[in-house]
């Protein structure tokens, strides 16, 4: 997924949950400047960042998939079930 798109989605998450950017940066164990670069798409979020964000915001797998990968895991599961039936 394009880093700018992910950054924009994480910004919206921060706004929706009314979380302070410094609080998120501290929990990600990065500087506020580094977080801003990730939010602007200049740096990518690491898998470890995704895990921490998932836990901090108590996100379900579909929300995480939508934010970071632009997909819905529910659809993937349904597709897998269809493939199993066809086999």
Q: What CATH architecture do you see? A: Orthogonal Bundle
Residue share in β-strands? under 5%
Radius of gyration of CA atoms, rounded to a whole number = 15 Å
Q: What quaternary form is this?
A: single chain
- Fourth CATH level, the homologous superfamily: lambda repressor-like DNA-binding domains
Shape category: elongated
The succession of helices and strands, N to C, reads HHHHHH
Helix content: over 70%
pLDDT averaged over residues = 89
Strand element count: 0
Distance from first to last alpha carbon: 31 Å
CATH topology: 434 Repressor (Amino-terminal Domain)
Main pleated sheet:
none
What is the level 1 CATH name? Answer: Mainly Alpha
Uncertain spans: none
Number of domains: 1
Instruction: Kindly name the structural category.
Output: mainly alpha
Number of helices: 6
